[in-house]
């Protein structure tokens, strides 16, 4: 699969329009968007990750097998980061700073691994199936569960205004393990 590297540097990547696409990787060769601090592959954390300021736009990829790693996303779109059900966000922090209710930081994804989500007036995450080692906080709700079963393993859902999670009447199941 293809790899794109994004350096931290002194620059914030500012998106002037929505980023969306349908290009797909495959299970053996996913498309990878990798953030790094100083050297490619250094796996930065926290403020050492590059930042994508999406503004009112979202970063939406519907192509299969995307791995987005070590990047901070900030924006006010209905969904700031959304990937296909075979994709994953690893060590990403997503902040939806909109003042409009019910917006999401993370949208649909297959996996969020070591992710952090904040949505000041909405949901930290919604539509993701597997959540592993994540922290969803400072949101109206930590997570939203729709009609798909969800599994949260070793996650922290804290300091959310209305609670850890919410779902609609068609929610299939949500499993919390070691949270």
Quick recap of the structure?
By secondary structure, the chain is an all-beta fold. It is built from no helices and 22 strands.
What does this structure look like?
With 179 residues, the protein is mostly beta strands. The protein is 0% helix and 47% strand. The strands form three sheets. The protein has an eight-stranded parallel beta sheet, with no helix packed on it. Strands 2-5-8-11-14-17-20 form a seven-stranded parallel beta sheet, with no helix packed on it. 45% of the residues are buried. The mean pLDDT is 90.
- Order of strands across the main sheet: 1-4-7-10-13-16-19-22
The amount of helix comes to: under 10%
Give the class from helix and strand content and strand pairing. Answer: mainly beta
Task: Return Rg in Å.
Answer: 15 Å
Q: Tell me the number of helical segments per DSSP (H or I, 4 or more residues long).
A: 0
Strand % is: over 45%
What can be said about the biggest beta sheet?
8 strands, parallel
CA distance, first residue to last residue: 34 Å
Contiguous low-pLDDT stretches (5 residues minimum) are none
Number of strands: 22
Mean pLDDT: 90
User: What global shape is seen?
Assistant: globular
Q: What letter string, H or E per element, gives the SSE order?
A: EEEEEEEEEEEEEEEEEEEEEE
């Amino acid at each position: 699969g293809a790899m794109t590297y994004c350096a931290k540097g002194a620059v914030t990547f500012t998106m002037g329009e929505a980023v969306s696409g349908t290009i797909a990787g495959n299970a053996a060769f996913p498309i990878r968007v990798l953030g790094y601090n100083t050297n490619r592959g250094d796996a930065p954390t926290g403020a050492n990750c590059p930042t994508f300021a999406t503004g009112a736009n979202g970063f939406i990829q519907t192509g299969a097998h995307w791995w987005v790693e070590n990047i901070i996303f900030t924006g006010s779109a209905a969904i700031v980061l959304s990937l296909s059900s075979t994709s994953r966000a690893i060590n990403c922090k997503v902040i939806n700073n909109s003042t409009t209710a019910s917006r999401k930081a993370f949208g649909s994804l297959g996996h969020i691994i070591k992710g952090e989500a904040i949505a000041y007036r909405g949901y930290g995450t919604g539509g993701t199936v597997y959540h592993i080692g994540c922290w969803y906080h400072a949101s109206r709700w930590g997570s939203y569960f729709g009609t798909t079963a969800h599994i949260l393993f070793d996650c922290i859902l804290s300091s959310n205004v209305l609670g850890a999670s919410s779902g609609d009447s068609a929610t299939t199941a949500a499993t919390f393990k070691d949270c």
